[in-house]
Every structure is written in C-alpha cells, then in structure tokens.
Amino acid sequence: MSDAPQIDAELAVVGAGAAGLYVALCAAQEGASVALVSATTLAQTASYWAQGGLAAAIGPDDSAQLHELDTERAGRGLVRRSAAAVLCAEAPERVRDLERLGVNFDTDRGGALSLSLEGGHSLRRVVHSGGSATGRRLVRQLSALAAQEPLVEVLERARADTLLLADGRCVGLACDDGRSVRARAVVVCAGGAAALWARTTNPPGSLGSGMLLAHHAGARLADLEFLQFHPTAVIGVAGREGFLVTEAIRGEGARLLDADGERFVDELAPRDEVSAAIDRLLERTGARSVSLDMREVDPTLFPNVVDALAEAGIDVTTDLIPVAPAAHFMMGGITTDLHARSTLAGLYAVGESACTGLHGANRLASNSLSECFVFGGRAARAALEEPAVPREITPTAVELLGEVTQATRAALWEYAGLRRTRAGLQRLLEDPHPLARLIAACALAREESRGAHFREDHPRIDPRLDATHTIVAADGTVGFERWD
Ligand SMILES: Cc1cc2nc3c(=O)[nH]c(=O)nc-3n(C[C@H](O)[C@H](O)[C@H](O)COP(=O)(O)OP(=O)(O)OC[C@H]3O[C@@H](n4cnc5c(N)ncnc54)[C@H](O)[C@@H]3O)c2cc1C
Q: Of all atoms in ligand 1, which is nearest to the CA of residue 158?
C-alpha cells in the first residue's frame, strides 16, 4: 500500500448519491478538503432514480409534530423518536438550503412550493422537482457543484474496498484502483442493499457494500430484516422490469385494480400494507400482477414516468399498468447516533447505508431523501471535529468481501421476500454471501411480524418488541436493544 497513490483529505466520503454529495458540499463550505469516492456513474445511484421527492413539513396546515406522527405510525412501533424528531424539525431548513444551492423545486401558480401527497402522509408534504424527476434534478445540480468545488476531489469509478484502521479508529480507505485516502473520518454514503434481491427497483450497485465494509471493520449494524417492498413496480414489460411508478401518482387518484377491475386496498395506506394486500391477492389468484389505473390522472404531472412507459408501449391515458411489489429500500444499516457516528470511532454513515432507527419497520414515503440532507449536514459538522490523523500510522486494512451471484439474489427473494418462514431463513443462513447471511440471522431472531417483515410462523406483532431494534455485533451475533 505504501507505493499506491495516497490522497490526504479532511474527510473521505464513500458514494456520490444525495447523501455523499451533500456531505461533501457541507464539509467544503466549512473550508475542509474532501475526497469523494464513487464506484459508479451518477445515473447508477438510487438518488438519481428517485421520483416522488422529499418530505418536509412546509405546508400551511403542517407541522413537524404532524410529520413525526405520520413517520411513527408508518414505522409500526419501531421508529426511534429522537431520530424522527430531528428529521421532521430540520427537513424544511434543508429544503431551503437546497434551493440556495440552486435546486429548482416545482411551485404552484402563486409561487409557493407545490406539495404532493404520498401513502401514509396525512396531508400534502412532498416537495418535488420536474414532476417526478426529483432525484435526477437534485443529483445533477449537486454533482455539478461538487465538480466545480476546488476543495472536493472526486475519485470517479473507484470502489472503496478497504477501510484503514489505526489505534481503534477509522483513518481512511483504499480503493480497488490502488488509490487510498487518509482522513480524520470516513463517511459511508454507499446506499442501500435492495439490489441483493432478485426483483428490485434499485440500480445494480445497491448491494450493501458500505454495510459490509463497516461490519468487517467492527461497527455494529441494525435492523437488517426490514427491507421495504414498493407496491408498484412494473412487471412483465420488456425493458421496464422493476421500473417504479411513484406513489405520488396514487396521491393524484390512480387506483389499484384486481383482474375484475375492482379496487381491493386503500391505495394511500403505508407501503407495507399495500404491498401485503397485493401479495395476498397474487397468491390467492395465481396472477403475476395487479393493474395500476392512472387513466384519470393528468399525465403532464409525471412526464418522466409517462415517457418511460410510452417507450415500452404503454399509453397511460388508455392502458392499465401491470405492477407488483419489488425490493426497494433498506430500513436497516450501519447503526448511527443522531450525528451519524457509527459505533467505530472515525466511521460515520448517512443515507440508506445508515440506520438511525428513523424508519422503524416501514419507511414513510419520501423520508429517505430528507434523511440524506438532514443527517448529511449533521455528519459533516461532527466528522470534522474528529482528531487529525497522526503522520506516522500503521493502518490495518479491513477488506470488503463477497461477490453477489444470481443464486444469492434469487435466494433472498425466495427466503427473505414478502413472506418468510423459519425453514426458509435457515436455508438463507447457508448462503455464500455474508450480507445475505446477516439478513437471515436478523430475520430469524425477530419472531414476530411487523412492518415489512412478515413471518408466516409468527404472524402477529409482539408488543414486547416495540422500540426494540435488532443489533448485529462485530462477531456476527444478533441481539436486541431498545432505542428512544
Ligand atoms: C426508483 C427509486 C425511486 C425512489 N424515490 C424516492 C423518492 O421519491 N423519495 C425518497 O425520499 N426516496 C426515494 N427513493 C429512495 C432514495 O432514492 C434512496 O434511499 C436515497 O437516494 C439513497 O441515497 P444515498 O445517497 O444513501 O445512496 P445512493 O443514491 O444509492 O448512492 C450510493 C452511492 O454509493 C456508491 N457506492 C456503493 N458502494 C460503493 C463503494 N464500495 N465504493 C464507492 N462507492 C460506492 C454507489 O455507486 C452510489 O454512487 C427511491 C429509490 C428508488 C430506487
């Protein structure tokens, strides 16, 4: 490692989605140098694919308390209240900050921010850009700023596969192209893990590599059994398999219909409820999909969804859209406090890689982009207070292990999908991929059904597990801990 090119920076950030870009820009605003490591091109981030927008209590009838209530209700007794309080109080200020950074959110005729309605929200609360092109607009603007920022060095197409440790702290990282970064702190913003499942809405890079890196370095993970399934991913349409049709379209009146053209679920219930209702219907009828009917919805509100479906031969003004649930969002991740600190000194995590406990057992729609910005700003400030790296160190390398095969992806879908059993999860414990095994261990330990985690052999919620999170220790053992 001594011969490899080495970069010295105040912060090393892994991942250039919404979380990573925002952490880097906030740190640069504080005058700090940042090395931003991105394994893929921008279009490969979940952030770029985000459609609906960011939840923030901005409307005249809204408040942080109402937003918090909806977050807690959706999270099914598992939301960490302190994390929800931070998110809901700070999200409006982060929206204003993004506007200052040049992000143009959609406005109504009077010039006020236009707010959309999504499942689980008691009122219109979701800020968006370009209709349903929010992620694309955000990532383009933030990455343009990062590229122009002299304090941010972007290491493109470099995959962090090693964390460097010295004296029990994380002091940098190394990439698969030989470059390494020494820094006061490493902030993992490497996204979620939903692409580990065979049927997913996520880009192929969402494989939980940040979680595995942190785990191998000795940080604790939490709540890996909680993987949200999005109810309306396109199925059976060539070229658009897994394409997500945003919930905001249901907020404008789109309906879910069975084979007889009848409604069977409240389309704006939280996602776990809608996905489970679809799954039960498909199981009962043997069908592959239900229909999303947006024929009555104004198509000009959602141009990118309408265009993407038109390219695949679906005219949303006359056709029904075949949809079914797909793996979408990892509620679990690297355990962090309210300043994004992991349990390993010098290692931070933000965005979908992190688990603050905010999402509980079922994320409220559009809380995740808000999370990237709220906890991203906090992470940048806290991480810059870490002590400087001593000049002379002998770091220990902790390497990322494990390629993902199609067999692993199929096994996760089969054994850790919408319905789980002890026998299936025990089979998953034998999977060659280490994260698949940890997910199985968490799902086996949680002997109840709550939010996105449904055990056929334990079909009810166990109130004794309210507010109780599943913790993966560094040695892989799984236990429980109450978080307030
Ligand atoms: C189709 C879709 C629509 C969505 N819509 C919404 C929405 O409307 N509102 C909302 O709030 N949420 C939405 N979500 C969820 C939300 O987009 C994500 O949770 C959020 O964007 C995650 O941001 P992130 O920065 O944590 O990760 P990402 O945006 O996934 O970025 C992670 C980055 O890390 C990189 N990376 C991974 N491993 C490594 C490594 N080892 N080394 C270097 N780089 C690495 C990846 O290449 C990527 O650049 C949606 C998700 C999808 C898939």
A: 43
